[in-house]
Amino acid sequence: MGSNKSRANYRVELHSQIFFSSLPNIFITINPCDLHHPLAMKFAGVDLNIDNLIVDLMPKSQQRAAIIASHPIGIVRFFNKLITTVLSTLINYNINKHKSNPGGGVLGEIEAYHDKVEESGRGALHLHMLLWLVNNKHPHELRNLIVNELPDFNTYIHKFSAIWPTSNNPSCRLRYPKKLHDPTTINVENGEIQMKHAHSMMNNFNEWLLLACRCYMDIKFIWSASDTKALVYYISDYITKKNLSFHDSNSLIYQVVQKFEKNEQKINYIDALDKSRRLILRCFNTLASQQEISSVQVASYLMG
Fold first, then answer.
1. 262 and 122 in one domain?
2. Which of 76, 98, 268, 270 has its CA 20 to 30 A from that of 118?
3. Is 35 within 8 Å of 41 (Cβ atoms)?
4. What is the C-alpha end-to-end distance of the chain, expressed in Å?
5. d(Cα 200, Cα 181) in Å, to the nearest integer?
6. Domain span at residue 266?
7. What is the pTM of this model?
8. How many CA atoms lie within 13 A of 251 on its CB side?
C-alpha cells in the first residue's frame, strides 16, 4: 500500500469481499525469513545450487544482511515466488482462474482469498491472508467430526534465553508464555471462544505450511462472527496505519507552525477561518509528503 488513500481503500475492498463471500474461515500470517533462506540468496545473485545445497557455501550472517539490503528486487522476487508457490501447490488454488483446483489442498477447497503484503521495520515483507472455504461447515458439525487426538510429539523449543536477562522489561511483547486451554471452551458471559492451547511457548501452525516455508507463521480458524470482526479490524487497522511515528509527526507539525507564524505578516488572510484552513492544509501536505518507504517496498510497488 503506497499512499494514505490507497491504504484507506483497503478497508472497502475487504468489506466488499466479505459482503460477496460471507465471513472468512481461516486467517494466516506468513513471514518469510529472507536473511537465512537459500532461495533469497539465489534471487539476490549468489551462486548456489539449491537442489544440492552445501551449507558451507552460504554467506555468513553479516554478508547475508548486506546482500539482502543491496538487492531489493531479488528479495521481492523471492517473496512473490514463495507465496505464489504456497498458493498454487499447498493450498492448491488456481490464481489465474480464481478458483480452487479439484480436491483442494492442505486446508481444503478454497472459494476465495484476500491477502495484503506489509513490511516490517527493516523492510522485510510478510503476508496477512483471509481464506474462504468451499462448503464451510458449522462449528457444531466440525466438533462432531473430530473424534481422535494425535499422540504427543517430540518437541525442541528454542528460547531466547540470551536476550531476556539483558532486557529492562523481562515480559515478552508477543505475550509469551501464553495461557493454556484444554479443552476448547466457551465463556458463557461474553461468548468468547478459547481455543485449545497445549503448549505455552508455541504459536498456532500448520505442519505442511511450516515445513515448506521454514519461517514464522500463524494460522487461526475463525469460529464466530465476533472473531471475524476483531480480525477484520486488526488487519485493516494494521495495514492502514500511517508510516510516520507519533513523535515524527509532532516534529513536522512544529516546523510547519514555526514557518507559518514567520510568514504570517506577508499573507493577507480573509478571516480567522481562512487562516486556520491554510494552516491545516500545510500540515496535511507536509505529513502526506513525508513517508518512510524501504527499497523493498518500492520494488514491490513497481513490480506489482
1. no
2. 98
3. no
4. 11
5. 10
6. 246-303
7. 0.68
8. 6
